[in-house]
Amino acid sequence: MRWHNSLFGYKRFMGVERTRAALEAPVAETLPRCPHLLVSSYVPGGPEANYTVMGLGRREHPPLIITVTRKLRQVPQPAFGAASLAETCVDDELAAAAASFVKEVGLVGPFELEFKREGGTGRPWFVEANFRFSALVEMTSDGETSLPHLAYLDALGGDLPDTTPTHRRICWVDEFRDWRLCATGQLTLDELCRGYSDVNHLSLFDRDDPEPFDIALRRAREEAGASLPLFELVLARLLKTFEEVGR
Fold it and tell me: Is the full-model pTM beyond 0.90?
């Protein structure tokens, strides 16, 4: 079981307990000062078992499924966090489950539905629904079907272009989050950088539009503190690898 004190508002304060007895103590301690406590079942499996289905709910048409992505790494570990390394994949079962959910609830607009496949059985479990864009939405534009653009056209009542999902593999990394797995001792520097061999899309780095990256870079350097040399090393290796892959 996992528990989350929503007063703190961030997943790094989650705890994972293996038994009901162990879970009762933090729940009893938290409830008197924070009645908004979320407790949910923990699905066995690492971050690579987590999937996100992105698409668009429409009023007069069936939902559009644009991209299915799979986490390769996440921050924070181990329970549930934001993807720091992810890839596109083909998963018809999850795409169908997402479309069925969106149709049943009557959602109109962009969505990101998260699922986890149980370790050992592969059984899919619904995790949560986000009716918004996240950083992973960049993977839809790289796949030649931009979800924000489709949402804009649909809101204006215009015709939508062909939305057949691309089978091109996109490997995406959050250059300002992924390095923390090394800083916190969860991965060695070699293990971390080995994951960059197939990266062909970064969260913010773009030579044609450098300002968002530069702003985030200044903030990341301030937050890195004593780990700044590690941050600079990892970022330099990642950018070098990215440039080589893109040639």
Answer: no
